[in-house]
Design a protein that fits this description.
- Helix content is 76%, strand content 3%.
- By secondary structure, the chain is mostly helical.
- A two-stranded antiparallel ribbon has the order 1-2.
- Helix 3 crosses helix 7, helix 4 packs antiparallel against helix 6 and helix 6 crosses helix 7.
- The radius of gyration is 22 Å and the shape is globular.
Length: 181
């Protein structure tokens, strides 16, 4: 694949202006909002390059699926012990859970290495239970600290039950909207 010539570079910049200029001409848009929008678009473009169209679509579908599932579980199954105000609060919780998983997963991997003999004896049940309890602790912490307004978890047992059901919703979403390779 050859490099772009000077004429092609000029044509590309005329057709597709830089990100910052897309929001510069909107008079009612404050400069901070324009900067945030430009940064969000550049983050989406970076994700697009890494994941591709199919991967990004799968990520968005699974995010919406998990937010909707969490909202329905909180309203239907655990309505008295888990309060959630709306879909935006559910989306915030799903986003925080995903970020927390990025940090918790290495600790769980370390536990699996250290507790290998126990995992061997219990056929992996110890690792599964440790992951479940760790996820419930994260879910409970998000609900107790009010990081997301409109989301509250009353007790740890409700968080544990919601974690079990949410993991089932997540697994179904992965089967429905997972990347097909």
């Amino acid at each position: 694949m050859g490099s772009l010539t000077g004429g092609a570079k000029i044509w590309l910049t005329e057709v597709r202006p830089p990100l910052g200029t897309a929001f510069r001409n909107i008079p009612s848009c404050p400069s901070r909002l324009r900067l945030e929008a430009a940064q969000s678009l550049s983050a989406l473009r970076a994700l697009w390059k890494v994941m591709g169209m199919e991967g990004l679509r799968s990520l968005v579908y699974r995010f919406i699926w998990n937010a909707l599932g969490l909202f329905l579980l909180a309203k239907g199954v655990y309505g008295d012990r888990v309060q959630i105000s709306g879909l935006s609060a559910a989306a915030g919780v799903v986003l925080l859970l995903a970020l927390a998983q990025a940090f918790v997963r290495p600790a769980l991997f370390l536990f699996r290495i250290v507790a290998f003999p126990l995992n061997l004896l219990t056929l992996g049940l110890a690792s599964f239970l440790a992951g479940l309890v760790l996820n419930a602790l994260v879910f409970f912490a998000i609900g107790q600290t009010h990081l997301i307004s409109g989301f509250h978890v009353r007790d740890f047992w409700a968080a544990l039950g919601m974690t079990v059901l949410y993991s089932l919703v997540n697994a179904v979403g992965a089967m429905l909207f997972g990347r097909r390779e």
